[in-house]
Amino acid sequence: MISKVEDAASAVLKRTDQKALKLRIVGGLITGVVWVIAVLLGRTVFSLLVGAIVVLSIDELATLLKWRGFAVSRPISMAAGGVLAVLAYFAGVQGVMAGLVFILLIFMVRQAALGLRFADTALNITAIIYVGVLLSYLIFIYGLKGGQVGVVIVLLGTWASDVAAYFAGSVFGRTPLAPAISAKKTWEGAVAGLIAPSVLIATAGAIPQVGLAGDGMLSGVLRGLAIGMAIGVFAPLGDLAESRLKRELNIKDSGNIIPGHGGFLDRLDSLMFASVGVYYLWLWLAG
């Protein structure tokens, strides 16, 4: 059995573009180090990083939409995303929701004043919600009790899910997951992407210092398992959602800023969805 796995892995590596794989690994390590350093430096620094990424990611998405002929406003959308990140830091979920209401009013007035299509206004607001609100959940998580650990967990869990799905799909993938959206994603990869974060975080939950154990080691393991499974479900959904967006826009990558990964959205699509799932599950488990 082991020899068959090794043979399959070897065959995949021979077919893989070695330069692209190295770039993917280097790009992943660099972004991982940046995230970890920001988390360790505290909530303020971490929130500044998230805010910067929100602004740059909205710029990335708005650029793509303008390229496809939609009348989106990059400056206003980027500013709105930055405001949401600030509100996430100072006022939490309620502040962001209130901010969205005023952003909606601004864009509706802009639409009326400039005679724009409602579809363009809707796309502007959707882009801000998709990037600005979903990424703000990382700031929300950090603000919870034990939130610093929570952010590390969602980061590591999402990376584990992505890596496991990528390599398991490459070696064992036979059954297409969603061929109309992405030809390369398979059910075998999806299963590995569910198992990897579940095992990783359940194991971490057994360690008292992690802080998941409420009533003992078993409680920590079960909580870790639940969080890992949530990541394993939400992360690939985020990946598929962005893949569908790229297919509709007829592009391969959302950008080229991260070596081997493409743009910010290519790198963060899974994390954006996973952070939402982890936030609400963390609240429930703490309740």
Polypeptide structure, described:
Helix 2 packs antiparallel against helix 6, helix 5 packs across helix 6 and helix 8 runs antiparallel to helix 9. A two-stranded antiparallel sheet has the order 1-2. The protein contains 9 helices and 2 strands. It is mostly helical and 287 residues long. It has 2 domains: 183 residues, no CATH class; 102 residues, no CATH class. The chain is globular, with a radius of gyration of 20 Å. Strand 1 and strand 2 form a beta hairpin.
Query: Any idea how many domains?
Result: 2
End-to-end C-alpha gap: 45 Å
Number of helices: 9
Give the overall form. globular
Which percent bin holds the helix content?
Answer: over 70%
| Side-by-side strand order of the widest sheet | 1-2
- Strand coverage percent: under 5%
Q: Rg from C-alpha positions?
A: 20 Å
Order of SSEs, N→C? Answer: HHHHHHEEHHH
- Would you identify the regions where 5 or more consecutive residues have pLDDT less than 50? none
The overall strand count is 2
TL;DR?
By secondary structure, the protein is mostly helical. It is built from nine helices and two strands; from the N terminus they run ααααααββααα. It folds into two domains: 1-40 and 145-287, no CATH class; 42-143, no CATH class.
